[in-house]
Amino acid sequence: MDSGTPERRLPVTERTRHRRLREQGSLDRDQLDSILDAGFICHLGVTVEGSPMVVPTVYGSDGGTLYFHGSVASRSLLASPAATVCATVTHVDGLVLARSVFEHGVNYRSAMVHGTARLVTDPEEKLAGLRCLTEQATPGQWDYARRPSPKELAATALLALPLDEASVKIRTGAPDDGAGEDARLGLWAGVLPLRATWGELEPDPLLPAGVEAPVHLAERIGTPAN
Fold first, then answer.
1. Residue 97 and residue 193: Cα distance in Å, rounded?
2. For residues 192-217, average pLDDT
3. Is the Cβ–Cβ distance between 77 and 121 less than 8 Å?
4. Which structural domain range is residue 112 located in?
5. 125 part of a folded domain
6. Each residue of 2-51: pLDDT tens digit?
7. Is 84 inside any structural domain?
8. For residue 126, what is the domain's CATH number?
9. Residue 185 is assigned to a structural domain of this protein
10. Is residue 207 part of a domain?
11. What value does the mean pLDDT of the chain take?
């Protein structure tokens, strides 16, 4: 387990303690930041009217706070302001194909953030949070597109979750059965990598002729998506 340097070490709590596959766990805050920086979709676990619900939503991280849209979660927080939530971000890097099905697995990077989310009501912070998640998904888009109007801001539910309590797990490398009895089976084993890239832009059918894509979008074509 990678613990990172003392000053960049994640605190261990009952919710973040690694109980299974501890060798894949990490306490390195830099790895948490790297995982969050590489994505823009999280799955937010909340309790809504007494039932668990997991909601996919866009997010942005400024290094200390996770901002995300959450209309369903906001209703839950209004009913139970002190309720905790859990936001999860996962990147799949490949399938680990072993000689036996039991040893199959996934190479991945995953982060779970626990805490009490709050509704962002301050207009300046709401603008900053929306800029954060917009730029995380599409760098350069905030300065290119029209900013939200006061009416649109009022209609937008933005939540903020501190990054004070989080856990990280990462799995890399080959299957674990290369030195075991199954190695004598003569079967292929290894990793099938998964690499996502941004594709060609698809213009809006109603886009007038002559309107070119901005540079910040054109430059993303063919680049890694995470």
1. 10
2. 96
3. no
4. 6-176+191-197
5. yes
6. 665 666 888 787 777 777 766 777 888 899 999 999 999 999 998 877 88
7. yes
8. 2.30.110.10
9. no
10. no
11. 90
Closest to 140 in 3D by CA, of 219, 221, 68? 219
Return the amino acid letter for 145. A
131-159 CB burial, b ≥16 within 10 A, e <16: bbbbbbebeeeeeeeeebeeeeeeeebbb
> Tokens 């649109």 map to which residue?
152
Say how many domains are in the chain: 1
Rounded distance, CA 138 to CA 217, Å? 8
Taking the model in full, what pTM does it have?
0.88
With H, G, I as helix, E, B as strand and everything else as coil, classify residue 210.
coil
Residue-wise pLDDT for 45-104, tens only, equals 988 778 888 989 999 999 999 999 877 666 666 666 677 899 999 999 999 999 999 999
pLDDT of the residue at 226: 82
Distance (Å, whole) CA 4 – CA 7: 8
Is-contact 183 99, C-beta < 8 A? yes
